[in-house]
Amino acid sequence: MGQLMSGKEHTSGYESHPGHLLRLMPAGRRVRVRFNGELLADSTRALELFEAEYAPVFYLPRDDVKMDLLTPTESVTWCPFKGQASYWSIDAAGADGQDAVWSYEDPFVEMADLQNYMSFYPNKVEIEVAPA
User: Fold this and answer.
1) Overall pTM surpassing 0.70 (yes/no)
2) In total, how many domains does the chain have?
């Protein structure tokens, strides 16, 4: 997904790997995200990211996410093709929601459409995708 930030400046991976497969497109389906049964996000405007050999990842518009259930953390990671990711924890008792949500606040120009979109770790939340 990404690597921990080391404090040094990073440049776009597209400069050294111009053929890296990275495709972002409308998901065209309703995507809901739940944590411990509570609805965190519900969107018909989700984007789906296809990257190399990784499983596809859904990104939902921030307007479709219950931001009042999230708390920003100090965690950041770096992706050479998207930029720096910032993280949020889910505020819920009795479950591990630490750093379960991320967003690229200022993505590289190649992935500018990710700005103001959030994604969720599927091993920490339930993601429901309606059939196309």
Assistant:
1) yes
2) 1
